[in-house]
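thought: user wants a sequence for this fold. calling inverse folding tool.
action: design(structure=
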């Protein structure tokens, strides 16, 4: 039997459903998901097996017009993921159709593909009537030379098996790149930090989720089989610290409880999670913070 393996970059506008699709393909929550844009900040790999093929999915930050250093580093990471992949899957939101953002991505794609297959995945088909899909498919295929078009719902699972099957047979012949039972290669410290950031993003409003970052500072294995995890939430202003803490500390308490519960499920053991909020006005310009996020600091330069 010949084995196949390779990298599949999931790209698209923020909120297109890339992380949801990665998690569904892998069968576990490897990448955080929220209803807000710009949730994913760095490339996150998830591994799935299909027959003799090993599919290494690369979730990427959404592609948008960056304003800040962090935005630029995120967008660079996303394009970098596309540039390194064997196959690119572009996710489009069915109900939003061809936005200006989608047009810009199609232009950018032309420069990075170099003959590699690009599949179109029209996502969130559960949100539209089927007649919309036909014209959208046609328009998109006129705008770009896609190898194949799939209509999916990453959330409900529609069409995902077809996409997986096509990817499995389209990947190049290659030995597997990861052990057969491995599903992710993100360090646990980072997965843990991401879980806390997801809960913060879900609870906090407006700009605040975009002005904070979470890092796991210490991870201690305890004799009773549990883990003690200490995390720092960096915010840019004293006022933000107050909001993250909440009245009598109720916000931070709810966030850390939710994150701890999810971590315990993921790890299959007890966790003691301690989150501390620290004001660091300039964290968005600190190299160390980017390295912790898995981003290249230099990519943020103008
Ligand atoms: N109705 C519907 N919602 C979906 C579907 N797929 C994803 N979503 C929702 O869309 C929102 C964004 O999903 P994500 O997976 O975080 O999107 P993303 O592309 O990773 O977003 P960024 O990380 O911000 O770039 C979440 O609320 C998901 O639950 C789908 O097939 N149908
Ligand atoms: Mg995401």
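)
observation: tool returned 302 residues.
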């Amino acid at each position: 039997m010949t084995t196949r393996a390779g990298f599949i970059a999931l790209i698209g506008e923020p909120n297109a459903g890339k992380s949801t699709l990665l998690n569904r393909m892998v069968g576990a929550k490897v990448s955080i998901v929220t209803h807000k844009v710009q949730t994913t900040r760095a490339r996150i790999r998830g591994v799935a097996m299909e027959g003799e093929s090993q599919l290494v999915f690369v979730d990427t930050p959404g592609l948008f017009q960056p304003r800040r250093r962090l935005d630029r580093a995120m967008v660079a990471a996303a394009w970098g993921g596309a540039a390194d992949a064997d196959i690119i899957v572009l996710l489009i939101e069915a109900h939003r159709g061809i936005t200006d953002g989608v047009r810009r991505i199609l232009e950018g794609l032309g420069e990075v593909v170099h003959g590699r297959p690009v599949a179109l995945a029209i996502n969130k088909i559960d949100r539209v009537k089927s007649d919309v899909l036909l014209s959208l498919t046609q328009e998109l295929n006129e705008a770009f030379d896609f190898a194949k078009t799939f209509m999916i719902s990453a959330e409900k699972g529609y069409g995902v098996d077809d996409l997986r099957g096509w990817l499995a047979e389209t990947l190049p012949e290659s030995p597997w790149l990861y052990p057969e039972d491995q599903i992710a290669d993100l360090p646990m410290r980072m997965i843990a930090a991401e879980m806390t950031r997801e809960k913060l993003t879900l609870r906090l409003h407006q700009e605040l989720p975009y002005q904070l970052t979470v890092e796991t500072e210490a991870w201690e294995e305890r004799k009773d089989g549990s883990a003690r995890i200490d995390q720092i939430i960096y915010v840019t202003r004293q006022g933000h610290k107050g909001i993250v803490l909440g009245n009598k500390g109720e916000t931070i308490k709810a966030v850390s409880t939710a994150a701890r519960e999810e971590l315990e499920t993921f790890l299959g053991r007890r966790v003691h999670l301690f989150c501390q909020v620290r004001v660091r006005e300039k964290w968005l310009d600190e190299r160390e913070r980017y390295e912790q996020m898995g981003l290249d600091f230099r990519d943020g330069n103008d």
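thought: summarizing for user.
answer: Here is the designed sequence. The chain has nine helices and nine strands.
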